Amino acid sequence: MDIVIVADYQELSEIAAGYVIAHMKKKPRTVLGLPTGSTPEGLYSRLVEEHRKGGLDFSTVTTFNLDEYLGLGPDHEQSYRHYMQKRLFGRININEEHTHIPDGLARDTDRCCRDYEHLIESVGGIDLQVLGIGRDGHIGFNEPGGSLASRTRVVVLAPETVEDNSRFFSSVDEVPQLAVSMGLGTISDARRCVLLACGEQKAEAIEQSVEGPVTAMVPASVLQMHPETTLIVDEAAASRLRRKNYYRAVQEKREHIAQIN
Ligand code: PGA
Fold first, then answer.
1. Is 173 designated active site?
2. Is the CB of 42 inside a 6 Å radius of any atom of ligand 1?
3. How high is the pLDDT of residue 261?
4. Which residues of the chain have pLDDT under 70?
5. What is the Cα–Cα distance from 241 to 53, expressed in whole angstroms?
6. Which of 6, 31, 169, 178 could form a disulfide linkage to 11, CB 3.0–4.6 angstroms apart?
């Protein structure tokens, strides 16, 4: 795992956008795995800006979102399809047919999950998977106690997640309890992962994911087994890391090596 500690949310969003843009420039047919939530909003704004001002071209990009609430259709304001449309897809030149999000209204959910996996496979897999992290260490909607090898499936949201996400709904009772989520195995198949975390409320999850054991009790710890993962964290989210100074030193050396090359 590479740990990049940044000063603030703006820098986090800039650096995350840099990763996405670099992938798109290197491989115009890039397949992106995308998260929702508050954390990636700055990244999406930067990408939109780069598209508008710098002509960043999304016409050949394919995307797969991590998850969707079960029971919410694309017109529901809190559905992740709606979120993505509003913050990214509706503001760039991506072909809507190349944007994939699990169907929150699927009747045959088993089939929906199987098809999602096949679709990812059929385009050659995900090149760059961007991730957020929950307070409980979840990535996607993979809550503690699941399987480290899980695939796309229907999941039950943990009470902490329901509570955290209730800020987007008018009451906690309106938050769906079920979702379709890519599994930890699905996420681990991505060629590269970039996880974003900011704020003190994520500090414990980051500490456990980076410096704790690999365990299904901390789903993001599965990334320790992934050879190409970068965590971009602000000072607050990094505040509990015991080896923070070492990560900083590694980061400086990497920048130095990059300059030599
Ligand atoms: P947040 O959510 O970005 O809104 O904090 C992250 C997550 O739950 O994965």
1. no
2. no
3. 67
4. 261
5. 38
6. 6
- Cα separation, 218 vs 206, in Å, equals 10
| Atom 8 (ligand 1) nearest CA | 134
Mutate which of 34, 36, 44, 160 for ligand 1 pocket (most atoms within 8 A of beta carbon): 36
Assess whether 77 carries a catalytic annotation: no
Question: CA 255 to CA 158: how far, in whole Å?
Answer: 39
Q: How far apart are CA 138 and CA 12, in angstroms?
A: 20
14 in catalytic set: no
**201 CB within 6 A, ligand 1:** no
77-100 core/surface letters (b: 16 or more CB in 10 A; e: else):
ebbbbbbbbebbbebbebeeebbb
pTM of the model: 0.97
Query: What is the position in ligand 1's atom list of the atom closest to the CA of 196?
Result: 3
Determine the atom of ligand 1 nearest the C-alpha atom of 133: 9
Q: What is the 3-state secondary structure (H, E, C) of 7-30?
A: CCHHHHHHHHHHHHHHHHHHCCCC
Residue 138 designated active-site: yes
Are the beta carbons of 242 and 205 closer than 8 angstroms? no
Strand arrangement of the beta sheet that strand 153-156 belongs to: 67-69, 178-181, 153-156
What is the Cα–Cα distance from 63 to 129, expressed in whole angstroms? 10
